[in-house]
Amino acid sequence: MKTTSAIRFSGLWRRRAKPFRLTPTEKISAVMLVLLSIFMLMPLVYIFNNALKPYQELFNYPPTIWVRNPSMQNFIELWAITKNSAIPMSRYIFNSVFVAVATVVLVTGVSAMCAYPISKHKFPGHRIVFGSILVTLLFAPETVAIPRYLVVSNLGVMDTYFGHLLPMVAVPVGVFLMKQFIDQLPDELLDAAKIDGAKEFTIFLKIVIPICMPAVATISIIAFQDAWGNTETSTLFMQDETMKTFPFFISTLTSNMANNVARQGAAAAAALIMFLPNLIIFLIFQSKVITTMAHSGIK
Amino acid sequence: MGCIILNHVEKRYGKDKLSAVQDFNLEIKDGEFLVMVGPSGCGKSTTLRMIAGLENISSGEIYIGDRLVNHLPSKDRDIAMVFQNYALYPNMNVYENIAFGLRMRKLPKHEIDMAVKKAARTLEIENFLERKPRQLSGGQRQRVALGRAIVRNPQVFLMDEPLSNLDAKLRVQMRTEIIKLHKQLGVTTVYVTHDQVEAMTMGNRIVVMKDGIVQQVDTPQRIYSSPKNMFVAGFMGAPPINLVEGKLLEVSRGALEFHTRKYSLAIPDSQSKKLIDKRKAGRSVMLGIRSEHVHLDPAMRETNPHSQIPGIHKLSEFMGADLYLYAEIGASQLMTVRSNIDQGSRENEKVIVTLDMRKALFFDLDTGENLLHDDDRMEG
Lengths: 299, 380
Ligand SMILES: Nc1ncnc2c1ncn2[C@@H]1O[C@H](COP(=O)(O)OP(=O)(O)OP(=O)(O)O)[C@@H](O)[C@H]1O
Ligand SMILES: [Mg+2]
Hints:
The complex is a heterodimer.
Chain A: H1 2-16, H2 24-52, H3 55-58, H4 73-83, H5 89-120, H6 126-135, H7 145-155, H8 161-169, H9 172-183, H10 187-195, H11 200-211, H12 213-229, H13 232-237, H14 246-257, H15 264-296
Chain B: E1 4-12, E2 19-28, E3 33-37, H1 44-52, E4 59-64, E5 67-68, E6 79-82, H2 94-104, H3 109-123, H4 138-150, E7 156-160, H5 168-185, E8 188-193, H6 196-202, E9 205-210, E10 213-218, H7 220-225, H8 230-235, E11 242-252, E12 255-259, E13 264-266, H9 269-277, E14 284-289, E15 294-295, H10 298-303, E16 308-318, E17 323-330, E18 333-339, E19 350-355, E20 361-364
Parallel strand pairs in B: 3-8, 3-9, 6-7, 7-8
Antiparallel strand pairs in B: 1-2, 1-4, 4-5, 9-10, 11-12, 11-14, 12-13, 14-20, 15-19, 16-17, 16-19, 17-18
Helix pairs in contact in B: 2-3, 2-4, 3-4
The complex binds adenosine-5'-triphosphate and magnesium ion.
Residues 44-45, 160 of chain B line the site of magnesium ion (MG).
């Protein structure tokens, strides 16, 4: 679909020598899409502005979107609050960064290593394996919270980083995405590598993964967002305060502050800090993700 | 020693399925260019992939060099393969594509560099070593694929329809280049194609397959002039061989005539003798004759007075140097004549075609076997 419209567009270009003359349908859809993207952008703008609003502006009536006198006051306030906590904020941030990065690496690795044999080595029962992975998509996370707790506690990984990581590692969507992508690699490519003398793991690492970079990028984003915003593992599996993560810390702050008018500014600053890494990661991988959508038929 | 021996090789997919390849026996000599040809689904790729070690062998033995390779993984068989869709690694540039096999074999860097450069020079792809495969044309990609094969100096090249993704002109050009490459390197090559022109022009020997069964293994000349059965005769050669059904009648002692309701054709003595020996006198057979052995020339009529068929010039196809003329010689039966452009007749005019009966072939109606085929050499 992308290519046909591109061809049509280049055709337009040549015929009329004016690039932005659009057909009525194209005009309408362009307007619709612009409106939609503004709508989708609103929360983003709001988060940024709120974080920069000085205290008085936060409670202006009627509320405004744009900040008038941007200031760092909220961040300073947040800093002041966190200084009083028993555990330094840096510890939470370290936990979060470590857990998020490790989750991304593990999830992409595990998804790819799971998808590759299912897709390219039709071992007996590969359909059943893939089917059961897909079935797990049907369960809402809440329904498996208790079994998950039992597993984690019986494994004895409470209060360790494994407690954060293990529950996050299996991502059926990741396996699915990866499989769809690897399915499209011609078998001859892998045969050629085999004849060239590559071992199975070399083929996986040097050929399959590089070609599937778009899928890897997508899964990385999904995994990062899941891990970065996740408070569940901290709440359920970590009794030790030093093992808890940044979003958990923020959520305790903000929930304590919920009724506290005085701390709304700090909450806004915290919301921005929580949000920023997601945005950065997305911007870095964005172009790759779009190719995934084009490839996987999800679009 | 790059010879390949296949001994009763079989391939069955699934448990009780029909064999994709049945009882394949063949000895490929060192330095030979062997072409496997046959219609789609006849098991050419399967055979090639078994030699390459990409497919298990259900039963039988394969030797490469002097080694039994049944259980040897592909990488240890000392072979290189070229695929129809090139199968270049899209994430690597041309240089890396060619070097990959050497890197896997842990060759020192400078040796790899020298080998890659040399292969690139041979194939004239030095100028785009830095490019990614998607930035190359089909012909260039296939050259890179060839480069990847020759750089490793294997005992055997295996090629599975390497030219069928190219356009007609490029295909002819690459065909001669592959022949040149083979002359230059002298490496045993097994080449799969479904294009009989490729088979004829490239092969030292041709294997014709059908439904997983080898029909004939022979030189291009003999495959063409002395096909083992009706299938081989019909598959090889363009335009396809003319086939006419009729009866063999013994007109006098030792002399046969090919007889249909409309005409009869005298069969030369040597052929008659063989047919009588095979007890075919009085039986129905299929006569096969190639278009170049059918003539419109009046001069031929005088020398062959007893092998003429009256017909009607139905249509003609201009082929450049030749003209294919289709003469109707019976109810909806056309005979193709390869003739000169300046032959006299027009469409729907009467013509008389003269058959050069010395070149005629006779096939058994049931088995399709060529009744005149002389088994003067044994295959396998
Ligand atoms: N993986 C497979 N599982 C089951 N049957 C297969 C498999 N691969 C091939 N076959 C069957 O084996 C037979 C031979 O296939 P093969 O690919 O060797 O044909 P081919 O001669 O190469 O044809 P083409 O000219 O179309 O490439 C076919 O009937 C095919 O259906
Ligand atoms: Mg094939």
